Amino acid sequence: MKTKSIKRMLASILMAFESFIVFFATLAGFGLKVADGPVVWAVGLSLSFLLIMTPAVLGRKGSYAFGWVLQAAIVAIGFWLVPMFYIGGVFACMYAWAMIAGGTIDKAKLAFERANGIVVQTESQEVFTIENDDKKD
What we know:
Blueprint: H1 6-31, H2 37-53, H3 63-76, H4 83-115
Helix pairs in contact: 1-2, 1-4, 3-4
């Protein structure tokens, strides 16, 4: 049985929702003419695409750091569209919460499974067993 990472699940949900927010911010930026139309669309749609595709690679080496780069890019959009400082900040805080809480839950779940002798295969391909030293007569 393979268990899913809660950290990956929380980050995936957040990034999928955030891609829609960035798309709507792109529409707002285009309507407010914060920059040339093609530039607004190129930046906004590229970020939306990256946000919706990143959950597919979460769990691999460097993928969570890439998520932080995306969060910083969204906050940086605030230089052209000021409300994105606040919206991006809120999402960066939620991403931090997803990393901390998800990692904590994954570690607790792994400890519980080890303590109860449950053999599972995690996303990191770690397999373990707990041997019982009780002798039956």
